[in-house]
Write a structure and sequence with these properties.
- The chain is mainly α.
- It folds into two domains: 74 residues; 40 residues.
- The chain is 69% helix and 0% strand.
- Helix 1 crosses helix 4, helix 1 runs antiparallel to helix 5 and helix 2 crosses helix 3.
- It starts with 9 loop residues before the first helix and ends with a helix.
Length: 131
């Protein structure tokens, strides 16, 4: 499936994510498990039709951003970024995020050790003066 590099509206970007995720039936079943497959798919199609009253809630748009991220379709996030005047988003790979957090943790642990040594030095100097 060829992904578009530019979207005229948020509905176009939403539509691309839904199509990349398997279409209205598959996405509808995930978003509306309480509905029949046809009703859920109809609801998705209604939300993707700007002439209808139905619209995705902010939480559902967030779900679709995450769904798109999971399947490598960044159309919606890119549209939101560009329309808000931001640079294109750069997805973070979970492994990269874990490695970054581990490095930060190690650095923070070193800093705590250094602070503890400084506190002990100050306390021992203060105790010698008092004695």
């Amino acid at each position: 499936m060829q992904l578009s590099l530019h979207h005229e509206s948020i509905v176009d970007a939403l539509r691309e994510v839904v199509q990349a995720a398997g279409g209205p039936k598959k996405v509808g079943a995930a978003m509306y498990p309480e509905k029949t497959a046809e009703d859920a798919a109809g609801r998705i199609r209604d939300c993707l039709n700007p002439d209808r009253r139905e619209h995705f809630t902010p939480e559902q748009v967030t779900y679709l951003v995450r769904l798109g991220r999971g399947i490598g379709c960044h159309a919606l996030m890119t549209y939101l970024s560009r329309s808000g005047g931001y640079a294109d988003p750069q997805p973070i790979e979970p492994e990269d995020e874990v490695a970054r957090l581990q490095r930060e943790f190690i650095e923070a642990t070193k800093n705590l050790g250094s602070l503890a040594a400084k506190i002990e030095a100050i306390q021992s100097t203060t105790l010698r003066r008092v004695s």
